[in-house]
Amino acid sequence: MAQCVQSVQEFVQDSFVPMVAVLCSDEAERVTRKNNLTFAELLRPFCRLTSEGHIRDPNNQVQVVKNLRICVNNLATSPNAASAALSPTQRRLLNEVVLACQPQEGSVTNAITAGDYNLNFSDHFFKASMPWYSAWRETLLEVSMNEQCTATTPWFETYRENFLQSMPASDHEFLNHYLACLLVVSSTEAVPMEQFLKLSNEQHRVQHSGECTNPKWFIPNTLKYYVLLHDTSEGDEQKADTVYEDMKQRYGSQGCYLLKMNSRTNSSEEDEQIPDPWSQYLHRNNLHSQDTLDDTTVNNATVENSINAAEVDGQDSTEKDPVSNNLDSHPLQLDSGSSSGSLQTLSAAGNTASKKSSRDPESAVGGAGSHGASLTLNDHDRIRQFIQEFTSRGLLPHIEKSIRQLNDQLVSRKGLSRSLFTATKKWFGGGKVPEKSVSEPKSTFGLLYPPEAPELQIRKMADLCFLVQHYELAYSCYHTAKKDFLSDQAMLYAAGALEMAAVSAFLQAGAPRPYPAHYMDTAIQTYRDVCKNMVLAERCALLSAEILKSQGKYSDAATLLIKMTSEDSDLRSALMLEQAAHCFINMRNPMVRKFAFHMILAGHRYSKAGQRRHALRCYCQAMQVYKERGWSLAEDHINFTIGRQSFTLRQQENAVTAFRQILTNDSRQTATQQAAFLREYLYVYKSVIGGNAVSLPQLPLPCIHSSATRVYFGHERRLAEGEKQAATHVSLDQEYDQDLAVMWCNLEEQLAAAANRGIVPSNFQPTQCCLNSQTDNQRHPLAVVEEPVIVEMTFRNPLKVPLALSNLSLVWRFTAGDSFPSKEEATATEETPGETVTNEETLALEGTQKEDDIVTTETIIDFHLSPEETKVARLRLLPHRTGQLNIVGVVYNLAEASSGEIAPSAGDGQKTGDLIVVRGRQDLKIQGPRLNQTKEDKMSVRHGPDRRLDPIITTSMPLMEVFFLQFPTALLCGEIRKAYVEFCNVSAVALTGLRVASTHPQFFTFGSQATTPLTPLSPTSAENCSPYKTLAAESQPGAVATEMLVSAEHFQQLSSVMDIPVEGDTLQPGESVQLPLWLRGPDQEGVHEINFLFYYENTEKGNKISHRVIRHTAFICASRSLSVQASASRSSDPPHHSTEDKGSGGTLVFIDVENINTSESGVREFHIVQVSSSSQNWCLHKCINPARDKDCKLTSRERAKLCFKAKRCKPQQVTSDTMGKYTFADLNLGSERIISSSTPCGDFFFRCCRTSESPSQRGEVSSSRTTSSSKNQGLTSSSENIGNIVRKCNELDLNIIVIWKAYVVEDNKQLILEGQLHVALKTIGKEATSLMPKEEAQEMVLLKFKSEIPLPLAPPSAELSQLIKTNLHYPETYTHPFVQDSLCLVPVTLSLSNCSMAQVDVLIDLRHKSSSPDSVDVHNSFTWVGQSQYKLQLKPRQLLCLTLRACFLHAGVYNLNTPRVLAKPAAQTVLSETSQQTSGPALIIINNNDNEAA
């Protein structure tokens, strides 16, 4: 919307000004040509009056004429009649006027804030702020939401002004008819008066002969004003004065004027700088002069769209796009049929077209040069004074006279009152509102009035009053004429009267009546639909729109402007749509989206009109609204059009930027349309880079997820090599798991601590072979020279068309470090330490890389991406020098992949098989994690560094590979399997310190050479490749177990870190070693993940990398085998009196073995071949199983019970020299004895024992006890002692090892599997099992806020009853002759065994009687004779025997187990004695010897 310097009233006044013709003699024309101007052009800058003029109306009232401007034109005749449309020449010149008026570079930014939209209307912004919309907020003016800041459109103002001045004269109105004629003669003429006469006759001929229809004259009696032009530089001033006097005599002083000019001399030219006010007016004369000259040569049928408008800035004219020029195409329709050939065609057409320079406005007026070169400032004042004199003394009086004459004629002809003015004033009244309903126009508009018709006289008088600003009288006349024209159905005349009546009503001072907008609407409709005259309709719309906008009626103005769009003039439609868009944005509630939509429509019409710069500007302004607001299809259309327009305007950089936006956004276009976008972009991109390929710009496709980039350091591991299975280690195919990473880090810390005397080094950093977005990337990673660095990048194709990438390579920069290279490397390269080397230029030229001797860069030849596919590419670098490596990005060739479905169109100038290939790059910019440590970090958004792409290349390090042979994937629970592991040093550096850590150290062992016996193996063991060391030994009934004393130190360390027994502890370069590895199936069924971490170091210390590790993960499927349940109880057998067994007591071990294996594993049966024990205090003595089976076979779900007798270890085995050693006792049930104290049986025993007694469990027990003891402050230390005594009393600490064989049928072959199960018997009377307890979910416990007071601990009476073990020894049958002797005395021995490790006070009471009701039976009654109570004290583990006598009176069966034994620890003085548990009934049979009695 044009922001004019003048007001709307001034604009409307200047649109209708008095017309004055100029007729010059040849000599006068020569005088003015000295200034490179015609006489009319000479006057044009001074045609506005600087003072007020006055006229009198027919009522003799003085009317003031302010700021009057006249229009002076050369008299040019034309035989053509007035047309309803502009001529092609006028259209072309209007097109050039708009084309020449472009936004000024660096002009003040115009901005509008509407809601959350900020719109910028500076053309400089659109050229400088690339990419679109990126930095525009920084350049916007801060305008409040309610403040309206109107954007200027000077091209529209220029078009409007030139359009109004170029309108052809019409017969239905007189506003642009000539009122006067200036006759100009030079004083240098021989007879000036004769020349005046000739010019006067010529003017009369032109007006009255009828030969020429143009120009048109206002009234027959045209004012002739005679001007004598005197050139002061060459003319005779006295002669001029004489001639001027004659002129005044003949024409009167009011009708002539002497104008002196050309006062400037050459001497004064250097001293004075004269302004040039003519330049801005010259192009307007173009429209009139060339219109007249070229009308005969230009075909009237030529349409505007075929005009090839040249660029005014000196650039070559480009052929317009045939697709965009299609009148039937929709403004928002994308060129789906176009391909890369569309822009190629445009480019080819632009190159082959004839080179035409821009149209110079000065060429039409006689060539270039300065204007007014012979004029001084005084001459300027003289010209201005001349115009003042002519207007005030000639023109205005002439108009006043004409108004009076017309008024008198109308009064006399129509018989009205004295004055039409008074009559109309009486009829209509000053403040009466015009009627709003106008009768519907009829189709007959061809009615013509004769010049003397009263209706035309009224119209002529109205036009005269309008020109001299007498708007009230003009309105009355227009209103009267309007009625007459409508009654006569003269629609063209009626429309003109309606138009001017509305304008007059608006311009009336004081606004006595509102603006009748419906008059304008009716006039526009009549012009356009009835009269088919778009020129007059356009003029009417321009006037009405400005008036409506001045009244704030932007919506009505926009509606009016949009109605003026049509297909006959693209330029007019574009300007109208643009102004309508500005109306929408300037409403009280701005309609931003309507603004953008109509700007797009305007840009489309600008493009069709050849105004590519204006089209580009409109699309850029609309983009501000649609950008990043979810209008993806609209964005694509706008960016596509911006790209094409920029390309045709030779703005290739902007074109590339626009096309990038289409390709980088998530487009919802069809595949065909996206293919067209891609081809256009590739062509534009290729034309931009041209031959400058040294610096490759960024490519938008494909999308690279920089944060998903992974970097792998080292060689990729071989998965398998024949029968060997390589360690899994780390690979790019594995997904990152945070929990696993923590687990590996813990294992590595344990290994580093084991290598550093149990302390983790202060500079310890966990090894990270693969870096990704979840790893710690704040430090520079360490890579090894001559080992590859693999970068995995994730490419995503956002389009629905395939992409073909080729010659992918990484871009890097390398800075040499302080490490000294080898001699070969030093001679191969010449760079000095600290110099940065890069491969960017080499990759840009796609040549051979001279940097390969520093870093070898791998190239991927072909890389295809399917539509919308996400795919990874792995690129390798092989560094050959030590230093700092920075991976910058990736370079590649981009092309559209060939597809049978999508092919270039046949008319694009290319063969179908030709593909455009461009080379570019993308940089990898990875944002680090957000910092959240300090307060400043939390208050702002800060990101830490991510250095995964900046590794430091260190010196050579050893590299080891690990292979496994015969490694199983499935085992039975407890199964022992022998495998082999091979360690290979594949580097040129020796390695040492080989260790391994595992999450399941009980799963494997490397064995112990110290405990492996050198005895020969049994034949069966050798034949079946048994993992055990076995000896041939037949089991004998009642055989005693074979015992062996072994120290735990002979086996591998009981920690999770194991030293690998490599000879010499060093592997030389290229050396490999193979070691046996025994495996044991987990005790719990299921799939188990076993993790190994192998650790090794460089033999040379001081490197940046202190150690290296290899990971291996094995999955073992464990199946159920046997379930072993064991329990122990004290034996009731009488103790042996031999010194060997004295005090050992007797302990029975009961073992239940059940086959819980399922038939799915193919196990036919299990054989229990041996039961062994290991303990520091106890051992199995012999098997007392009554079945006497040689071998124990178990089929599915069968159960076997075994009974063994255990004894304490011999006293000499518990000396201080052998403290900490374990006694292994083997009881074989078959023909072979397995040495349980050797590898692998002993290894797994110690590892399983250590696993079952974890330090955490022990810590929990101790902490709970400490907590409970701290709460019970009333308890004394005596209770603690009692607890220890009781616990040691029942403590057993016997570990049972059950060794079995399983017979498996697999592939019709029988295999023998061997294994072992462990059961730890800790307490007598408590059952233990080999099955792992299942973890149950912990029940929710209510939260207690108040701690409960614990109850005082009661003495453990149940446990104290087991301090003393009692046994009665007596004859089972005793015969006594009661006839001879009535008292039968039987000796009974009572043995007391102290089971505790403390002195015990014992009280034996023989007076105890049973309270059972059965005791009244006389046969059950007997008595003890002798001492009835004993008080004894037993030392720890002491055995004491007492001889008692029982007295019987009758024969019968008696229970001797009646003595009551009470005991308590001797150290406890407060505690009373506790009754001891006794064994079962001790029955004795007393027989009566009747024979002897007989």
Give a brief outline of the structure.
The protein is α+β, with helices and mostly antiparallel strands and 1494 residues long. Helix content is 30%, strand content 25%.
| Global geometry | elongated
* Helix percentage range: 25-40%
Termini Cα gap = 155 Å
Radius of gyration: 59 Å
Percent range for β-strand residues? 15-25%
Any low-confidence stretches, pLDDT <50, length ≥5?
123-150, 286-341, 349-368, 416-444, 819-832, 900-913, 1013-1023, 1137-1144, 1254-1276, 1413-1418
Judged by helices, strands and strand pairing, the structural class is: alpha+beta
| Biggest sheet record | 12 strands, antiparallel
Beta-strand segment tally: 58
Instruction: Give average pLDDT, whole number.
Output: 77
Number of helices: 36
Notes on the protein architecture:
The chain has 1494 residues and is an alpha+beta fold. It is 30% helix and 25% strand. The protein is built from 36 helices and 58 strands. The protein is elongated. It starts with 7 loop residues before the first helix and ends with a helix.
Notable characteristics:
alpha+beta, twelve-stranded antiparallel β-sheet, seven-stranded mixed β-sheet, 25% strand
